[in-house]
Amino acid sequence: MENNDTYKTICSPTEEVLFKDKNSKFYGYAFPLSNENDIKLLLEKLKKQHHAARHWCYAWQLGTENKRYRANDDGEPSNSAGQPIYGQIQSFDLTNVLIVVVRYFGGVKLGVGGLINAYRTAAQLALENAVIEEKTINIAFEIIFEYKDMNKVMRIIKEHQLTITSQKLELNCRVFISVRKKIAHKINELFSSLYGIEIKLLDD
User: Fold this and answer.
1) Among 12, 62, 99, 116, which residue's Cβ finds the most Cβ atoms within 10 Å?
2) Residue-wise pLDDT tens for the chain (204 aa)?
3) Rounded to two decimals, what is the model's pTM?
């Protein structure tokens, strides 16, 4: 498990996709997510855009190691919409993503099986339209040291190709770095073993 420090997500919101079944229209959208607050805003935007629609069903997943998710049927029969949409997030192995399927009722009932198929297909089409990228799970550290130790610190950062996220280089220097999870322990030990240099793990 230690080496599994990557996850997949989508780069940007997808173009609208459309799936039709017996006059009902299902519009699928996928959005990258960074927090739960975004969900409400994105749903409100789609409700304005599709104010004449009947249902705005969705599913989302957030987090890399401790994942949280939710599936919402928005008035459709239980588990006929949100769950099939969430199934596609799992099938594409994604996180930090929201999928919304907007339905316009076409006058003919599809039955639960038809609904499951329609919501699953619209979600799948939306994700097939997405640019999926693999990212690393990173751990953030703060390194505190005196200016005279700058070279020692920078040498380790360079050797291990660590990312500096910000720095304050004064008499007392602080450098904030982002480290891939699988080498975080090693980097922590390297800096801890240097005299006069302090390394702190930062909470997300």
Assistant:
1) 99
2) 345 789 999 999 999 999 999 999 999 999 999 899 999 999 999 999 999 999 999 999 999 878 999 999 999 999 999 999 999 999 999 999 999 999 999 989 999 999 999 999 999 999 999 999 999 888 899 999 998 899 999 999 999 999 999 999 887 899 998 998 999 999 999 999 988 899 998 875
3) 0.79
Is the CATH number 3.40.50.920 carried by domain 6-134?
no
CATH code, 137-202: 3.30.70.240
- Ramachandran assignment for 147, one of left (phi > 0), alpha (psi -120 to 50 degrees), beta (any other): alpha
DSSP 42-110: HHHHHHHHTTT-SEEEEEEEE-SSS-EEEEE-TTSSTTSSHHHHHHHHHHTT--SEEEEEEEE--SS--
